[in-house]
Amino acid sequence: MPIVGFDAQATQGRQSGLGVYTRHLLAAIKHKIKAPMALAPFFDPMAPGQDLKTLDRLRWENRTLPKLVKRHRVDLLHVPAFSPAFLKPCPLVVTVHDLAGLRFSNQMGIASYFYWRYWLPYTIRQADKLIAISEHTKKDLVSCLGIRERKISVVYSSGHEGFTDQISRETIAGLMQQLKIRDKYFISVGTLEPRKNLSRIVAAFLLFSKTHPGYQLVMVGSSAFAHGKYAQRLSREHADGSDRIVVTGFLDHEQLNALYCGAQGLLFPSLYEGFGIPILEAMASGCPVLTSNITSMPEVAGDAGLLVSPVDVLQIAQGMTRLAEDTPLWQDLRLRGKEQIKKFSWDRTAEGTLNVYESLIK
Question: What is the CATH number of domain 3-158+345-360?
Fold first, then answer.
């Protein structure tokens, strides 16, 4: 029976978006996989429950994982997050989420620049099949790395599961009080880094605030990018002595769900996304979405999002005004969002992934 190895290391430690993707995909594949195919998930025995530093990750990818592949006589290895080994240990499938590091290489340190510019492209090219999580990521693989289209399969991610609009008013109010959120607010979700377009989001919000002074902007996400220096600079540039802008840091699932439910809308006019899971999270929570009209975001939002140019501050501010004043539009986007999320599921992601496996295992 053919054995498919599955690199599950990303599920260990505090899970980033890649870890969440890997965890859900692994669970869905376990549920759907059938003979004559067996799945062998591999975890790092040297780092149970820990986040890996760069050197630890290189050790896992290039020493530990290849040894496990050989020991278990794996016929096909799937690496759903991070990078495969520099030397391919067996036939290989790699999931590519985005090429942000190539598109925004000027925002990287020396080590990250080398990784994205040289290491990752080389390892990706060694794969027998690539899974792109959106059509836009597929286009990037072709245009940036010269990958042949026939080598790439588009298998959409998911991410709305576990989010609901059935959160009690008491729960929402309690969290708002804890985070010093007054009444009406927009929410922005994502790591505090330049490609999330936070400077323009803040500028658009301050413009919007001139005619809507009762609103706050709540920014949710880790400030770990660039060792926190970008988040510090953002705070310095836009500090105005008021509490109109609330920066929460990282929130757990339940807290995030509650904030989505209480928000006037999600502001997600990112400059670049391989997919954009917060779009689906917000829609599942009954939160209307304002997002970008570029990269993968129109694929994910469909006709259920308010699409704007991410480089046009006035357009972002006008979108906020529409969500604040146009009640029929606001309600329509909520309903459309509920329909849009039905197009995405981890079961579908697993089915598409298994089809890729089967194309390589004869």
Answer: 3.40.50.2000
